Amino acid sequence: MDRSTRRRTPLSIMFVGLLLSSLVPGGTASAQEVPPRIVFTGSDDGVHIRVISADQAGDLVQLSPDAEPFVTINGGLAAFTRHHRRVVFASDVLIEEASTGERIHKVDDARYPLIFDGGTSLVFLPDNNGRDVPEDRDAFVNSVWYRDLVTGEEQKLAQLNDPDRHVVQLAASPDGQQVAFTEGNDSFLFVWNIWVSGIDGTGLARITDDDRSLYPSFGPDGQTLAFTYLNPSRRCSASLHLMDVDGANAHRLIAGTCDAVLLRPIWLDDQTLVVWRWERTDRGFNRPAGLLAVSAETGEVLEEVVDGPVHDFAVAREAGQVVFRMKNGRIGVHDFTTGDTFPVPGGRDFPFGHLHIDGSLELAI
User: What is the largest CA-CA distance in the chain?
Assistant: First the structure.
């Protein structure tokens, strides 16, 4: 079986294999080769990237130390940004076999990769070099690009016109045919709106214009987006909202408060969302306080998945799991089917950084 055919294996089959197989020490498959599921980064004397096997057995391979702390994994491939040492702010995206470190693809003038559709598709942003020369994708870093990793064909999906606003989050639809992103400014304007585009560059539309909407996540049906809405009248609060992918029927699912600021909703299944909860401190700041499972139909809080300062998290939809990283570096996986939570080794070795799990289609930048 060639590599392109293997990558198109349905994710449901991949996850059955992941649950039934394991890897022996050294990264050699004991029975059937199964790609790792979890990838995370950490900082010590540079950025370190680690990938973890299906049975949480441990570190399989350490990738490039010149990477940014944003990395994604899908279909057994890990995508990450590597900086050029001789050119300031220039970078490219490398895609490697997660179990071996073998390089499969290189995308020039790129950063913030989100790999999806079984490892066959990539959406990314241009690098931050900012040169106004023909070989530079975008001098202002405010465009979004798609690459078909099977054919190598690229497509620019969007070009924003305001140099003060940038793309700050990426999301892909479960069928791999659409991309959503947030146009925003986290530095001095503090405004955000959500856009949607087909991967072929058609259908580009800004679907919110309130300057308060961010963190889009496609529902399993591909027709509904969950997102965070920041309350303009109460700056300390943020609520969970839903809308159609064309922006219609936007409505609040559950209201946030200053003691329960609701950020970055991610669909677990067609009935459940996982939401990051932040709380107000005595000094007037918000801090991460845990993860909630929320009914997508009623807004009812179904479960407090994690209680404590969650630094980052990702959701594996077909596995029914959420992986989370605490402020102290500890990484855990919560299984919604069994209710069990088990640790992932290595998080404390290089705390902080970014965390991703196979099947999660969102990248928070």
Answer: 59
